[in-house]
Specification:
Length: 279
Amino acid sequence: MKNILIPVDFSDNSWSSIVYAVKLFKDQLCKFYLLHTEVLDPEAIATLNDHYLKSIMNDANHELKEIKQQIEACNHNANHEFITVLKFQQLTEAIKDEIEDKKIDLILMSTKGATNRLSTFFGTNTVNTVAKHFKCPILIIPEEYDYKPIKQIVFPTDLNRFYTTDQLTVLNDITYDNNATLRVMHVKTETELNSIQHYNLSVLKTSLQGFKTHYHSVPSYDKKTEVINTFIDDLQIDLLVMVNYKHSILEQIIKEPVIKKIGFNPHVPFLILPNINNQ
């Protein structure tokens, strides 16, 4: 049984995330937790009467109930159960609590919500979630993305960090379960691999089994976003996977000057694996 947390704000994009989730996991037993958060200023709460607070709660619960009924009507799948959750706190704090309380295996969310606010990296809520380095993977769905089967997966890496069993298990499972081809994309920082990189490459080759795996080596240009996006386009990639640790390629991408101008918005789903050692 997979426990999947989906933050919803009742926008079209959050609905698309739910649809993507039920299609991706159509053959697996899943509990989908539909999480909505309302943030109220503590000082403002003191001035609000109980009737107004109950009105906010009732409205949110009503919308959650509607979205649950809507997806259940569209998704006649006995493998799936939907549970609504309403929290009055910041989204990142609510997610942290739900991960612990519900033993969440995956967070699935859209790049952008109803507010349409942009950050330098995806939507504001999404970048905050990524930055928190949660203990479970995060699958980010692009704006207005229509589901299509995952057949080609790319995993960019500089081979400088050891991979945990959990990270390799998630990478194995998502590739094997979808009968996909995995493409390990080594972003070169030096001409030759050092001893650590050789070791990490051997671990990948030993651990990634049961499906087609190809290893690619590409030069490390200043704008890694362009290198990755070009690779995604040229090889018709359906899923981008990266590890979220300090000084990783992901962190370098976020800090690139180009991000501040145009944003790194991959037009395919983006799976971010946590680095538990950073917790």
